Amino acid sequence: MTRAEEPETKMLWLLVLTLPCLGGSVPVTSDPGPGTELVGIMGGHDAADGAWPWQVGLWFFDPTRSKWSLECGGSLIHPQWVLTAAHCIPGRNPVTQHLKVQLGGLRPSYSDSVQVARIIRHPKFRLEKKAEGGADVALLKLEAPVGPSNLVRWIRLPPASLSFPPGTRCWVTGWGDVAPGEPLPPPYNLQEVEVPIVADEICRQQYLRIDKVIQDDELCAGSRERDSCQSDSGGPLVCKWRGTWVQVGVVSWGESCGLADFPGVYARVTSFLPWIRGHIHSSP
Asked: CA-to-CA distance for 194 and 158, rounded, in angstroms?
């Protein structure tokens, strides 16, 4: 199952529910303290203002309903480029005017979004196979570069040779469901959850039991009740490396959410570095 929202549950994110984003300083992201209520992405909790300044939300326009809705996440990887999941982009010929990117907000806010000028899905992504076919990455070029601030900053991409051992604690963020079929409740604050990297071979064997294949360009992370979920698709999985955050994965798919034997599946960012950099560096 992809981690994009199913059409019948998209109504939560209709523009009428848009809330103002918050302002403030840049606090340090920390684990929830004893007694903190865990709600969110799945097993997560409210993110602090400015904690994940590269997190973006993707707003799509539905011509049949004449409504905008927030359906996926993404990450700012350059002043003018966003990385997201290819399966988030609808149709064979997506319309740039029907897609906007929200920057720097903790809560869904269409008014804080910027227009997309270009949509580039990875050439190996297959619409008919969806996320499970691999190559589930896409680039969005913004109409104009954005400047860094307390609330907006781009995430560093990892060196091509970088890999994290199983058990490494990383973080995933998003506005997605807090449990299968259960949307994030008001006030719709961005959620964060710490998830462990799962060994490739273990994840591959677990998914083979249900006849699903983990591709070479995918990695797995998560544990029981700590996972990304529907509507988190396209969002970033980030890990600390030499004192700085790097993005190692893009939320892609999984078997339900938060199951002990089926961690979340992510597009492996190091598999796509030449493609990403080729587009960014060749762009005028």
From this structure: 19
Helix (H, G, I), strand (E, B), or coil: what is residue 258? Answer: coil
Tokens for 241, please give them. Answer: 């490396």
Hey, where are the domains in the chain? Answer: 169-270
Write out the catalytic residue numbers. 87, 136, 233
Nearest Cα neighbor of 65 from 107, 102, 98, 18 is 98
pLDDT, tens digit, 9 for 90 and up, residues 180-230 = 999 999 999 999 999 999 999 999 999 999 999 999 999 999 999 999 999
Element (H, E) at 280: helix 273-282
Q: What is the pTM of this model?
A: 0.88
Q: Are 42 and 226 in contact, with CB atoms under 8 Å apart?
A: yes
Task: Say how many Å lie between the first and final Cα of the chain, rounded.
Answer: 37
Q: How far is CA 251 from CA 112, 126, 180, in A?
A: 23, 17, 16
CA distance 278 to 257: 34
Taking residue 271's Cβ as centre, other Cβ atoms within 10 Å add up to 18
Rounded Cα–Cα distance for residues 227 and 262 (Å): 10
Q: What is the CATH number of domain 169-270?
A: 2.40.10.10
